[in-house]
Design goal:
The structure is a single chain. The longest helix is centred in the C-terminal third of the chain and has 18 residues. The protein has a three-stranded antiparallel β-sheet with strand order 1-3-2. 54% of the residues lie in helices and 13% in strands. It has a single domain, classed as Winged helix-like DNA-binding domain superfamily/Winged helix DNA-binding domain (Arc Repressor Mutant, subunit A), CATH 1.10.10.10. It has 149 residues and is α+β, with helices and mostly antiparallel strands. The chain contains six helices and three strands.
């Protein structure tokens, strides 16, 4: 990880700490301004996008694209939602970022479904083995009766 990627991931985590969430959705121009202001590292938007792509490829962050679809004929792209992965939070903890543990805790809390702010897909119910075997036998009986087996 180069210095620009390091400064980008630290800026992302600092925004997460300030907002007390495990995700952010900043505008790219805002992120470039923050890098210049707090890290004295001026970059172009193209370089910032490259930093994000490299961080995502190395599995330090995840990005989810978002669209504003209020006008069906003209959907507009919104800033991507950026989250740290477990690997990214561990990287920050190893580099002495004290509040990275809180971010890791928020990630784990969300992944264990104790954080109810976000919708989760329903967990499919697993049939007991007795019902499953009974259904298979019934299907086999019907197929034999119809002459498929």
């Amino acid at each position: 990880m180069n210095i620009g990627q390091n400064q980008t991931i630290i800026t992302i985590s600092k925004i997460m700490q300030k907002g007390r969430k495990h995700y952010i959705a900043p505008r790219p121009s805002t992120m470039v301004e923050l890098l210049a202001k707090f890290h004295k590292h001026t970059v172009s938007l193209q370089t910032y996008w490259r930093y994000l792509k490299d961080l995502e490829d190395e599995d330090y962050i995840n990005r989810q694209s978002r669209w504003n679809t209020t006008d069906r004929n003209n959907p507009r792209r919104r800033p991507s939602m950026i989250t740290l992965t477990k690997k990214g939070a561990k990287y920050l903890m190893q580099n002495g970022v004290a509040w990275a543990g809180q971010i890791l805790g928020a990630i784990l809390k969300w992944s264990q479904r104790r954080d109810k702010r976000f919708p989760h897909p329903p967990i499919p119910k697993i049939q007991p083995p007795d019902d499953y075997e009974r259904e298979l036998k019934e299907i086999l009986r019907r197929a034999t009766k119809l002459g498929y087996v």
